[in-house]
Amino acid sequence: MDKLQKSELRLLSNLSTPEKIQKYLDDLPYNKEKEGETCYSPRLVIRHHTAHCFEGALFAAAALRFTGRPPLILDLEAVRDDDHVIAVYRTNGCWGAIGKSNYAGLRFRSPIYRTLRELAVSYFEHYYNLAGEKTLRAYSRPVNLARFDPIEWMTTEEPLWVIPEYLVDMKHTPIFRPTRRMYMDERLYKAGLFGRAE
Predict the structure, then answer these.
(1) Distance in angstroms (rounded) separating the CA atoms of residues 94 and 165
(2) Phi-psi region of 50 (alpha: psi -120 to 50; beta: other; left: phi over 0)
(3) How are beta strands 136-140 and 143-144 bridged, if at all?
């Protein structure tokens, strides 16, 4: 953390709780990657004042680390849809999550989940594609980003593709194997798209 600039340290010191970290991410415009695909470090998220789901998870993990928690992320694996990456943390033995998403229901989770499976399943009803198909199928174990400290993942100016590549290659635990398309409530579908960046 000694490579963080004074302005970055000041910002992170103000994000002293998971709720404050989530609020910061909620206030950032969603990164639609109009100039090409990006994989920003937390430093570049701050500089460009934008993030998509993966970049938001990295930023949240860095902010959690600054509060003394391990910088953990977890991959939610989908079919016919993008994966979703969240930062996870524990409070009093229960799991919670911080996330940046273009869908309203795929963001914050209070730390009330006894297992990672419970936490992952809490995203199921809100995890769907634009065709209205519920797409969440599996989840990874948490990855401690400290393993990527040698590439300075918190402050590098370079794209961090090595981390999503690592997540894709990890074993994921299936949630279930559907035999038919799952019912999608029209109101939930519309609610989840509220505020969506086009």
Answers:
(1) 28
(2) beta
(3) unpaired
Q: Which amino acid is at 151?
A: I
Alpha-carbon span 176 to 121, nearest angstrom: 10
Q: Measuring CA to CA, how many Å separate 9 from each of 1, 16, 136, 155? A: 9, 12, 36, 12
pLDDT one digit per residue (tens) for the chain, 198 residues: 658 899 999 999 999 999 999 999 999 999 998 778 999 999 999 999 999 999 999 999 999 999 999 999 999 999 999 999 999 999 999 999 999 999 999 999 999 999 999 999 999 999 999 999 999 999 999 999 999 999 999 999 999 999 999 999 999 999 987 767 778 889 998 989 888 887
- 91 forms bridges with which residues in the sheet? 94
Geometric angle at alpha carbon 77, from 173 and 42, rounded to 5° = 115
Model confidence, pTM: 0.94
- Alpha-carbon distance 98 to 173, whole Å? 20
How far apart are alpha carbons 147 and 152 in whole angstroms?
10
Distance CA 18, CA 21 (A): 5
Q: Hey, what are 98's tokens?
A: 């911080």
Domains of the chain: 6-192 (3.10.620)
**Token digits for 182?**
């799952």
Q: How far apart are CA 88 and CA 116, in angstroms?
A: 9
